[in-house]
Amino acid sequence: SGSTGAFNANYPTNTESTKAIDGLTITKYLSFGNPTTGCISSDPRGMNTRFYVIPEISNESIAIGILFVAANDYLNRDQIKIMLEEMNTTNSTALHSAASWSLIYNDSTAIDSSIDPARQTYVNQQNFSNTIPFHSYRLFVTIKHDTDSSL
Questions:
Q1: pTM score, whole prediction
Q2: If you count Cβ atoms within 10 Å of the first and of the last residue's Cβ in the chain, which end, N or C, has fewer?
């Protein structure tokens, strides 16, 4: 776990970004996208919804994998593909900026888009090569299962 923050996020009570990393399969992070414009239901990207994480485990950490759960939600909201980036700062202004993030993963969440997966159950962990420690990580959902008002 760790601290989190969201960008272009608008979420119901008790589904904030901290729920994405709480280690529980019964909670969920739900975002309707940009709080100003909302999440256009025909936009499969969820209006650039993303959040950052500052891990608690140490001053710096090395991310080598990512693990998803299909929430107790609609199939169309399932995250299919993500980008994970890292940065060496904990400054909130910098964490919300587009500059200085380094891409470390741009691929599948392991949630199969051809079937409705078991809900509130872990899918296969996606591992990747990374040897550099960083202070903060940012996750973008780039593809979700289908159009919907949120992800």
A1: 0.83
A2: N
Q: 108 with 50: CB under 8 angstroms?
A: no
The CATH classification number of 2-144 equals: 2.60.120.260
Q: What is d(CA 106, CA 141) in angstroms, rounded to the nearest whole number?
A: 10
How many other CB atoms are there within 10 angstroms of residue 97's CB atom?
Answer: 13
Question: Which among 14, 130, 125, 128 has a CA at the least distance from the CA of 72?
Answer: 14
Q: Give pLDDT tens digits for 57-113.
A: 778 899 999 999 988 888 888 888 999 999 999 888 888 877 789 999 999 999 988
- What are the extents of the domains in the chain? 2-144
Q: Two tokens at 111?
A: 């949630």
Question: Is residue 139 within 8 Å of 50, Cβ to Cβ?
Answer: yes
Range list of H helices, the chain: 92-95
Contact indicator for 122, 69 with CB cutoff of 8 Å: yes
Structure token pair of residue 49: 């919804």
